[in-house]
Write a structure and sequence with these properties.
Number of domains: 2
Pathway: Carbohydrate metabolism; Entner-Doudoroff pathway
Strand content: 5-15%
Organism: Chelativorans composti
Family: Belongs to the IlvD/Edd family.
Strand order of the largest sheet: 9-10-14-13-12-11-15-16
Distance between the termini: 35 Å
Number of helices: 22
Number of strands: 16
Cofactor: [4Fe-4S] cluster
Largest sheet: 8 strands, mixed
Shape: globular
Keywords: 4Fe-4S, Carbohydrate metabolism, Gluconate utilization, Iron, Iron-sulfur, Lyase, Metal-binding
Length: about 600
């Protein structure tokens, strides 16, 4: 089926808006491609350094300058559950490469931090900037000019967007992203959330909370709720950067191993030495980016991607806006209920039919661009499948099931959970913001209440503990933007705000920070732009001002006389306590040059 006219119109608008930067980007990609096999330009001394530590057979292959050389960019560390399985991937990839006459080398390791560990801690203020550090780190590895293609080993929140920015910057190289999969299901997410709220109320102790958290996050693999990490995996498949059916296979299984080996061989097959040369710079275009936004809305994915997708698109010379994302959200029905949008986890989603079912449903409804290029070949229809293991240990693919295995988790377009994706752009006299309403009950989507203003998460939590928030309230947490402190996630505030909502109070959050991929039942106007430190109106709100968050009409307003509000001066705020400790002093330059949230909150120039 052809894509719906409304979606095509949005894509055309993005293409036209992006024409100057996209053409300049593609010209750079083609220039790099025209220079031919890259090792051929290295001197003998350069090349000798590049393969000095290789096994004899690999060294001989690289000396001939004809064997493909595959770069491995890995985010492995064994502190992150999602990335711990990557420990042995390089050897698997090297073995697979040798089987097809190629070589593979680890070109770079990139940092990978866990927002679950740093949530509510000083280290969280490095989190968003870690995306750009990852892009820089991967670029250093690829800059050795030794490679014909690259595979990228990364899963979690900022890691995949950072790797994508790097891959697109080296757009003359084919790129395949290789996931490691989600951990097996543990304590149900709603039970974990209940214990968190009881702890916030002081009804259970730290021992009970730690026990619940440990039963939830209990082994290797991605956290099983549908946050940014699993939204990343969905988007990589939607953009054709995974091999089909590979996103949500559990770690350390025979199928996972077979998929990893297959991905390595596929990356080699799409180099210039093969017959299907597919550099990522040509492959990813406006249609690919729109498909990622469609997937984000159809699955109720992470709000973080309203920032990351803009930065990713910009790396390919494509200009994506919050307005585009909202208009796509208005077209795309919600087809998945995965926590925090429901009780199920990603393993339940995968068992119900997963991405193969979802992609087929969206294609058949004209809500995805089918005529895109992917690492698997032309056409997204190739991804409407399930991957399985054959008796001989190879991967086979069968069509995705015609019916969902569990319609509490995954439904066809004809029985969508709601007609829109639930991501809304809010505008008004406080600037622009994003709100995710797919997990917010309709009765909580319009909140008008007095503001309580905070400059730190700790201030809000203290006010909650002292009972000062036991009323209708819009919690305004400001000076949390990229320039102020790196734009941390504020998910640690969720239990307290959830308790207030459960007590019957009308509650909302307004912040120039992020809320996280786990944005849940409390309405949250996040990414407020301009941020407070950049002179945004959010800096002028005072305690007691009536603030209106209206996800129905898309308005974010402070109900203060216009002239009075304009006359208000911003009170000076001392942010020096945020400039040091846990490495924050090293990121001062990043804070100074960080872009706005609606432009990707990036340190990189938009060219």
């Amino acid at each position: 089926m052809t894509v719906r006219a409304e979606l095509q119109a949005i894509t055309d608008r993005i293409r036209e808006r992006s024409r100057p930067t996209r053409e300049a980007y593609l010209a750079r990609v083609e220039e790099a491609i025209s220079k031919g096999p890259h090792r051929a330009v290295l001197s003998c001394g350069n090349l000798a350094h590049g393969f000095a530590a290789c096994a004899p057979g690999d060294k001989a292959a690289l000396a001939g300058s004809t064997a493909p050389n595959l770069a491995i960019i890995t985010a492995y560390n064994d502190m992150l559950s999602a990335h711990q399985p990557y420990e042995h991937y390089p050897e698997l990839i090297r073995e697979a490469a040798r089987e097809v006459g190629a070589v593979a080398q680890v070109a770079a390791g990139v940092p990978a931090m866990c927002d679950g560990v740093t949530q509510g801690q000083p280290g969280m203020e490095l989190s968003l900037f870690s995306r750009d550090v990852i892009a820089l780190s991967a670029a250093v590895g690829l800059s050795h000019n030794m490679f014909d293609a690259a595979v990228f080993l990364g899963i979690c929140d900022k890691i995949v967007p950072g790797l994508m920015i790097a891959a697109l910057t080296f757009g003359h190289l084919p790129a395949v992203f290789i996931p490691a999969g989600p951990m097996t299901s543990g304590l149900p997410n709603d039970e974990k959330a209940k214990v968190r709220q009881l702890y916030a109320e002081g009804k259970v102790g730290r021992d009970a909370l730690l026990e619940a958290e440990s039963k939830s996050y209990h082994g290797p693999g991605t956290c099983t709720f549908y946050g940014t990490a699993n939204s990343n995996q969905m988007m990589m498949e939607m953009m054709g950067l995974h091999i089909p059916g590979s996103s949500f296979i559990n770690p350390n299984t025979p199928l996972r191993t077979a998929l990893t080996r297959e991905a390595a061989k596929r990356a080699i097959a799409i180099t210039t030495q093969g017959n299907e040369f597919t550099p990522i710079g040509r492959m990813i275009d406006e249609r690919s980016i729109v498909n990622a936004v469609v997937g984000l809305n159809a699955t109720g994915g992470s709000t973080n991607h309203t920032i990351h997708l803009i930065a990713i698109a910009a790396a390919a010379g494509i200009s994506l806006t919050w307005q585009d994302i909202e208009e796509i959200s208005d077209l795309v029905p919600l087809l998945a209920r995965v926590y925090p949008n429901g009780l199920a986890d990603v393993n339940h989603f995968h068992a119900a039919g997963g991405l193969g079912f979802l992609i087929r449903e969206l294609l058949d409804a004209g809500l995805l661009h089918e005529d895109v290029s992917t690492v698997w070949g032309p056409g997204l229809r190739n991804y409407a499948v399930e991957a399985r293991l054959s008796e001989d240990g190879n991967v086979i693919r069968i069509p995705a099931p015609e019916q969902s295995g569990n319609e509490k988790v995954l439904v066809p377009v004809s029985r969508a959970f709601q007609p829109t994706g639930g991501l809304r752009l809010l505008t008004g006299n406080l600037g622009n913001a994003i709100i995710k309403v797919s997990a917010v009950k309709p009765q909580h989507r319009i909140i008008e209440a007095p503001a309580m203003v905070f400059h730190t998460q700790e201030e809000l939590q203290q006010a909650f503990k002292e009972g000062r928030m036991n009323r209708d309230v819009v919690a305004v947490v400001r000076y949390q933007g990229p320039k102020a402190n790196g734009m941390p996630e504020l998910h640690k505030l969720t239990p307290a705000l959830g308790v207030l909502q459960d007590r019957g109070y009308r509650v909302a959050l307004v912040t120039d920070g992020r809320m996280s991929g786990a944005s849940g039942k409390v309405p949250a106007a996040i990414h407020v732009t301009p941020e407070a430190l950049d002179g945004g109106p959010i800096a002028k709100i005072r305690d007691g001002d009536i603030v209106r968050v209206d996800a129905g009409t898309g308005r974010l307003e402070v109900l203060v006389d216009e002239q009075e509000f304009a006359r208000r001066e911003v009170e000076p705020v001392d942010l020096s306590f945020r400039q040091h400790g846990m490495g924050r002093e090293l990121f001062a330059a990043f804070r100074r040059i960080a872009g706005r949230a609606d432009e990707g909150a990036s340190i990189f120039e938009r060219v």
